[in-house]
Design a protein that fits this description.
The protein is mainly alpha-helical. It has one domain (4-335). Helices cover 77% and strands 0% of the residues. It is built from 14 helices and no strands. α3 (55-76) packs antiparallel against α10 and α4 (85-115) runs antiparallel to α5. The chain is globular. The two termini are 32 Å apart.
């Protein structure tokens, strides 16, 4: 079931893999497969609340699984890497910060969705891929070709179409939250955080010395950042006196289903991170195409989750969603030329 949404992405891989540059031929299909696999994460996080589990705790558990597996592999299988300690520290620190910001962005998005139209909040956050693309162009000199500009425009348009197709889903009283901060504030805050996070996550792949750091250690650092951010958030809630909330979250750690979901989130997460995600980002960074990393990941995720919703969940597919998928595939093709 979980692999079904990958098929639409695999269908265009032969075209992209025919690129003359070996880095593009590997990096593009690798990141498309990773993005497609993220629908499993979406499926789990969508199911968790129905079982009475907080999605933040599931994220925390998944990060703990990633750290545990990564440390075991680092201690037993990996050979010492002749990379200067300062390079390792800077690289892992960057990924840890990116992991922390990813948690913060998702929390801001969740608050926005509780107060306003879910489709619009989701679309605003996912538009961060535009800033990661521009970051690669501005900071690392990735080429800005006409086809890539048109491709990015199609990807952003697909996000807009998909967000509109998901509907508003405005909860009662959304326009007047108790805190005085409306859904637009949280949506654009998640966009800003996500834009920084995506640029940080892609930055190390532009440097040869950072690419020499093991993908396993990079995964551990990213997960460690997520755990740190989650603990800070929980400590903040405790400081505000939400004792009942803290007790409920702590009690959920004893539930086997939470760890089942956490392990499920990392089934592809770990395997693909070690073999496809970081190596794929490195491959694109090596050939001056690091700006494409997040647009490829996000675009592939949009296509795969649409397929998952239609073929697995049996949800009705609207014409606008079909337009979004076609726009996504066209955009992915053009930015990779």
């Amino acid at each position: 079931m979980s692999m079904l949404p990958v098929f639409p992405i695999l269908a265009v891989m032969p075209i992209l893999a025919s690129a003359s540059d070996a880095g593009m031929a590997f990096g593009v299909p690798a990141l498309m497969a990773v993005g497609a696999s993220w629908c499993l994460t979406g499926a789990i996080l969508g199911r968790a609340p129905k079982d009475g589990l907080d999605t933040g705790m599931v994220q925390l558990g998944a990060s703990a699984v990633s750290i545990t597996v990564g440390l075991i592999l680092s201690a037993t299988l990996l050979r010492p890497n002749p990379v200067p300690a300062r390079v390792v520290a800077a690289t892992l620190g960057t990924y840890a910060l990116a992991g922390s910001l990813n948690f913060a962005a998702l929390q801001a998005m969740a608050i926005g969705m509780q107060r306003g139209p879910n489709g619009r909040v989701w679309g605003i956050m996912q538009s961060a891929q535009l800033f990661s693309f521009l970051g690669g162009v501005v900071f690392f000199g990735d080429p800005l070709t006409t086809t890539r500009v048109v491709g990015m425009a199609l990807l952003v348009a697909a996000i807009v179409f998909f967000a509109i197709a998901k509907g508003d889903g405005v909860p009662s009283g959304a326009e007047k939250p108790a805190s005085g901060l409306g859904w637009r504030f949280w949506a654009f805050l998640s966009l800003a955080i996500c834009a920084v996070q995506q640029n940080l996550a892609a930055a190390p792949s532009h440097f040869e010395s950072a690419r020499a750091v093991s993908p396993v250690l990079r995964s551990v650092a990213s997960a460690g950042g997520t755990v740190l951010a989650a603990l800070v958030a929980f400590a903040w809630n405790a400081r505000r006196g939400d004792a009942a909330d803290i007790r409920a979250r702590a009690a959920s750690l004893a539930r086997g289903r939470l760890w089942l979901y956490a392990a499920g989130m990392q089934f592809f997460g770990l395997i693909f991170a070690y073999t496809l995600q970081f190596p794929g980002m490195d491959a694109l960074g090596r050939v001056g195409a690091g700006a494409l990393c997040w647009p490829i990941l996000v675009g592939s995720c949009v296509v795969s989750f649409t397929a998952y919703s239609a073929f697995v969940l049996g949800e009705k597919t609207t014409r606008l969603q079909v337009v979004a998928v076609v726009s996504c595939l066209a955009g992915l093709f053009l930015i990779c030329l």
